[in-house]
Please model this.
Amino acid sequence: MESPAPQNDGYERALQPVVATSRGIRVVVGSADYYYMDNAYNTSRNEHGMVWCGPTDERKVFSYRPYEITYVPNADEIEKNGPDFVYEAEFGSPENIVGVVSCLWGDIIFNSEMAMERFLPKGIGAFERCWNASPEGDKACFDKFYSIVVEKMVPFLDFLGLKYRKPMDAE
Model:
């Protein structure tokens, strides 16, 4: 017997980790909006990368909160539920979040240099967020993190001879 097709609604998908953790299921969370490293850094026509879920730069990656969900609806859901329909929830059982996943999809990456440009430095923000999921003081915390990236990581990446996306402050 065939099981019914799952509801393919973005709102329902966004709630799945909240429901799962509240039921005691251990999950690894991630977000295409924040953690797909193949997303473009900005919306420029000259920028390489995917844009279907918006541009993703270091600040956006670093701002992800694995223990919170903010679901911003797509156009169809706004039409159906009104312009103020935004869902925000904190996980009731954050202890059931056992990790964070970040993806670098290869469908638009043709060589290792392109992979490094997509992944670095915003991947460093993903590493930091996995290590410290809920920092206090967003702006000050990001500024401190970003100064470390510019002052310490950029010279290290240069030393390794890796091709990467230069942070604005390092150009």
Notes: The radius of gyration is 18 Å. The longest helix spans residues 138-160.
